[in-house]
Every structure is written in C-alpha cells, then in structure tokens.
Model the fold of this input.
Amino acid sequence: MQRLRGKGLNFSFTPMDKKPLILVTNDDGVSAPGIRFLAEIAARYGEVYVVAPDKPQSGMGHAITINSTIRLNKSNYHPAAEAEYNCSGTPVDCVKMAVNKLLPRLPDLVLSGINHGSNSSINVIYSGTMSAAIEGALESAASIGFSLCDYGIDADFEPTRQFVEQIIASCLENKMPKGVCLNVNFPKLKADEIKGIKVCRQAKANWVEEFEERHDPYGRPYYWLTGKFVNFEPESTDTDEWALKHGYVSVVPIQHDLTAHSQLQFFKDTLA
Amino acid sequence: MQRLRGKGLNFSFTPMDKKPLILVTNDDGVSAPGIRFLAEIAARYGEVYVVAPDKPQSGMGHAITINSTIRLNKSNYHPAAEAEYNCSGTPVDCVKMAVNKLLPRLPDLVLSGINHGSNSSINVIYSGTMSAAIEGALESAASIGFSLCDYGIDADFEPTRQFVEQIIASCLENKMPKGVCLNVNFPKLKADEIKGIKVCRQAKANWVEEFEERHDPYGRPYYWLTGKFVNFEPESTDTDEWALKHGYVSVVPIQHDLTAHSQLQFFKDTLA
Done:
C-alpha cells in the first residue's frame, strides 16, 4: 500500500529560493510517449510530479468521477520525476487529486500533454488534455496544454522541443494572468520547417459527424463515432487553424467563462 | 433488432406547416423523473424525440466516446414521444447520434434535463446536461439546458413548469442567435415563491475539493471526490448565483469560444 503525502499547503506560493513545482499530466495515459517527452523537458525547469490517467482518456472533455471511486497507484515511467502516480480517473480528476491531495503545495505550473493529436479549434471542448489545463487554471495555477497534430503512437515529438522550452520558460518568467491557460498545438513538421509561434484565437469550426454502423457476431448493431473536421473560416488569418496550416505553432489563451456576454441583451429583451 | 431511420435531411429547416421537431436528452439517464417531466411538457410544443443515456452520466462534461463502441436501444419511458432511444454513450454522444443518425432532420429545439442538481456558475463545464445543450448549439439547433437545484430523486419539478413553458415558447418564437444555448437553473422553491426570470452571467466560483479516503476490504485505499462550492463574488447582483439565492430562475446564454480575447495581447507581447 502506497503512502500519500497528505493535503499540503495549498494556495501558498513558491518562495524565490525554491525550484518551481511542476505538475505534468495528459489524457493519453501515464506511459504515452508524449507525456514522457514533456516530463523530461519539464524536469529541466523544476521539480516534476506526474499524475496521469492509468489508461487512455482521449475525448473525456471536462469529465469528473462522481459516480464511482478513484484509485491511485505509483508507477515508474518517468525517471526525471520526483514522484509519479497513475490514476483511474479522468484527466481533470488527476489535476484535482494532485492539487488537493498529493502535491506539497499549489504547483507553479501545470503541463498537460503532449497530446497525440490536434486540440485546436473546437477540439478544445472535447479534449481531456485541455480540460486538465483548464482545471489547472481554475485552481489558480499557470497551465499549458500541448498537442501535436499527429495521432501516431510513434509520432516524432523532437521538433516541438525548442518551442516547448520557450513557452515553459516564458510562462515561468512572466506572471500569467490568473484563470487563463494556453492551448498550444504543433504542426506535424520537421524542426526546420516550423516558422515560429503565433498567438491566435480559436477558429470557428466543427465536426461533420458520421456513425459507422457495424454488427456484432449476434447480429446486433453498434456504432463508431467518426467524422470530418470543417473549418468554417479558412480565410481568417488570426486563427489557430490558419497558423497550423501555414507552419506555425498555434497558441490560444483559454478561459472558462462560457457566458455569451454579447447576447445578454437579446435574452433580456425576449425572455425576462 | 431495431431499425434506425437512417441519416435524415440534416440542416434543412422546418417548413412553417410542420410542428417543431424537439430532441430531448439529459445526463441522469432516460428514465429519470426530470427528463420525463421535460418530455411531457415538450410534447405540447412539437414532435418529441428522446435520445438519452442508458445510465446516469452526471459529471461527464463534454466527453465523447471514441475508444469504444456505442449501442442504441429503444425504450418506453416517455409515452408522449414520437420515438425514444437509450444510448450507451455520453450526453454529447446522444446529441451527435440523434442529429446525425436518428432524427429525420435538424431539430428546431434541443432540450436537456431537467437535471437533478444545479448547473449554475462553474458547474456548467462539468455538466453532461449542459454539454448536451452546447453540442446542440454547435449543431446549429436552438438549445436549452434545464436544471433544478435539488439533487433528490424525488425532487418536485412542478414549480418549474410555468417557466419551462415560457422559455420553450420564447425560444421557438424568437429566433435564437446561432451557436448560443441557454443554461437555465431553478431554485428549490415552491411555485409561488419563485420571483421570476433573471438573464444573467456565469458567476466566478469554484469547488474547494476534498478527497475522502477509504479502504477496501483488502486494505487498499480508494477515494471519493467531494467538495464545497465557493462563490467568489457573492455581492455581484448580475450573476446566476445571486439570482438563484434571491429566488429567481437564472438564465445564462452560453457560447463555446473559449478564447481569452482580452489576453491575446499579453501573450503576443511575452511569447511571440
């Protein structure tokens, strides 16, 4: 039976003489190549704790585990980490568990990823990777989600290294606005083909869904969700989709107030 | 084996001589009292199709099923419905499946709920009920999520009736802005105690989490997520939390662009 550290001194900040405390998580699972790459880089900037799902949790969005229990176990995929746990819950559960139960204090930085696959545009709301980063921001920690536009298990993360380093360093040096996290996506390109970083907004886009119908050996139908991504504004040059298509790393600052402020008056006029 | 209707004429709108087509879903499961109450009201305004989870899916946020298959089965909890399916997937899967596979055309209205429990403020991002409504808006349908601030299975939904009717009627009559849905929450009050409707914004709030540690019969630890809701701005009178606390029905228009537009310049200055 493992021993947990107990609830630490949350919401206290790092004294200047301490190394930054960095929580690393993801949605592809604790052993995925993307999180190994990220944790190894993170260890150059601070004391790394890995708390990540024990199995793939892609597409889990901001799901939390409230109808069943959560398990935690130690694992050893990350030699550079101070401590490492895998968790039976969702990516958001991992962040909540780390911040409220495992870490000695509020992390200076929450890093999520590197995801195997894009989380640009509307994908942000389905993404476990990004929901973990949003949860970090909700906990008042500086948070970044990283994703590479390559779903392959053998994806080459090496071209992202210099940008991951640059963004981590910048977020540690410059006090990030509270409650905001970054959605960073990398194009599937070689290092010398990437043109640089573009800070941009989430493109208006959506999936045109299809459900592939199959039949089990007993003749009963079942379905696989498939679909085609459609960018509704391919001409706009200030979006993440444009940046990625044109060889840039896209960086979108993300917040969690879903209020459609510009529509308040419409509903005041028609409803109240 | 059931027969599905096949992919219908999506994205065409209702001719004026047809009754509105209304999709009803939720996250508490197809047989929950809240969705029965909602479907019965909805049937007075149009042709109702129920596609809802086959089991409770609270806290599933915007999760979708991509690592496993989805099953659909007919059920009979809603006598007023034209057709009714329960789905093994998440609330968002239910909406995708309904719109892309089951319904004869794009619904005129997507109704989600009535949820057993609050989805006000930050709860919106964890809520399967609200994610189904957001997904409806993403599919370009007018969408509303309803929640009652009472978690009990025997909650009294009757006091919400006149407001549910008023809001449905208004959203059918007044063309709702595309991509926007409504997050409607009802206080736990008697009908004559509810003061009316307030259109408002999402309050700044969060959960202070705790994990209750227990041990299984074999001595191994497991955890239950618990927590305490904290409103960070109890004095603000334009929020959903204020409205609910003061006896009003809260109505927050919700959108899905997570870009922190006001922070773009900060990151352009510090990163790019």
